[in-house]
Design brief:
This protein is α/β, with parallel strands linked by helices and 170 residues long. Helices cover 15% and strands 33% of the residues. The N and C termini lie far apart (45 Å).
Length: 170
């Protein structure tokens, strides 16, 4: 059953072996994200409804520092309350996000956060504190997440578009 909250665009799809939960952390008119008190309460109620079911949590903004100074201002800010809700649930298999047009992985809140690569331009990996913002027209990609009850979740990076091959595997 799909459950949608009023106001913000939070929703939960609970019809499959893995529950999909989307928490709207977008702040109208601003580039950064924030999980407000109402959203956190909704998330906590949703996750507490079944603490055993494997769950994917989707956010638009990553809840961590990427190390790319000009992108870190655009992350989800003030994440300690969000981290506490996710950690307490214990069954969040992945936190999925985007916004930064770059594939990244990080351990956070007792789970793994995956940010999706871009289907358009990719943010340049410039880690210097004075680095100028830049992006590249790179290979578009997406993440595919496969759930198996016996083995858990595996996440695959899949490039989009034509490429040479396939070649025999030796």
């Amino acid at each position: 059953m799909t459950k949608i909250s009023r106001g913000a665009l939070h929703y939960c799809i609970d019809d499959h072996p893995v529950r999909i939960v989307a928490l709207d952390v977008c702040v109208p008119g601003l580039h950064h994200g924030l999980a407000d008190a109402e959203g956190l309460a909704w998330l906590q109620r949703t996750l507490e409804a079944d603490r055993t079911k494997p769950t994917l949590l989707m956010l638009h903004h990553p809840p961590f520092m990427s190390g790319i100074p000009y992108m870190d201002a655009y992350r989800c800010i003030d994440t300690e309350p969000l981290e506490a809700v996710v950690r307490a649930a214990g069954n969040v298999e992945r936190v999925l996000c985007g916004h930064v047009h770059r594939g990244m992985l990080r351990r956070w809140a007792g789970t793994v956060v995956c940010s999706a690569p871009s289907t358009t331009t990719e943010i340049a990996l410039r880690l210097a504190s004075d680095a100028a913002p830049a992006s590249y027209l790179g290979r578009p990609g997406c993440l595919l997440h496969l759930w198996d009850e016996a083995h858990g979740m595996v996440s695959h990076l899949s490039h989009i578009g034509p490429m040479q091959g396939p070649y025999p595997f030796a």
